[in-house]
Structures are given as structure tokens and as C-alpha cells.
From TrEMBL:
It comes from Moheibacter lacus. Residues 2-83 form the Carrier domain. InterPro entries: ACP-like_sf, PP-bd_ACP. Gene3D superfamilies: ACP-like. It comes from the Bacteria. This is Acyl carrier protein.
Length: 85
């Protein structure tokens, strides 16, 4: 699981062009939206694309997306449970 979280942090930073953020800055429990990393709705769409391309996961329900994208940990847990790639 720690390998998945590391990979996920790298992909989030690359996909969202977070130039001022390093993997060490992004903790497993840092909120991705709001007061944490401060991502917005456009970033959420990018994360949905990332899940689809990298892990074969399609998110259709926005409410489900809110839960999945809370932290790196919640994303990793969801990927572990639902990945097809």
C-alpha cells in the first residue's frame, strides 16, 4: 500500500502541475481540497481522468468522488478496492 500511496502522490503532483509541492510535502492524511492542498473542481476532473487512465476506475457519482478525493489515503484505499489495472 505504501508503494501505491507514493505512486499516487507522484501522479497527483505531475497531473495537476503542482510545481511548488514535493512528495514529502504531501502527507497521506492531508486534505486535498479546502484548507489542505487547496484543489478545486477542475483539479477534481483531472483526478477522475487519472483514476480512469492509471487504474481503470470510472467515477460517475459526484458524492462518491468527494469521499474518494478527501486525502491520498482515501484515494489509495479506493484504488485498492476497485482497480481494474
Amino acid at each position: 500500500m505504501s508503494d501505491l500511496k507514493q505512486e499516487l502522490k507522484e501522479k497527483i503532483i505531475t497531473q495537476l502541475n503542482l510545481e511548488d509541492i514535493t512528495i514529502d510535502d504531501l502527507q497521506d492524511d492531508t486534505p486535498l481540497f479546502g484548507d489542505g492542498l487547496g484543489l478545486d473542481s477542475i483539479d477534481a476532473l483531472e483526478l477522475i481522468v487519472l483514476l480512469d487512465k492509471s487504474y481503470g476506475i470510472k467515477l460517475a457519482d459526484p458524492k462518491e468522488g468527494r469521499k474518494v478525493f478527501e486525502t491520498v489515503q482515501t484515494m489509495a484505499d479506493y484504488i485498492e478496492a476497485n482497480r481494474t489495472k
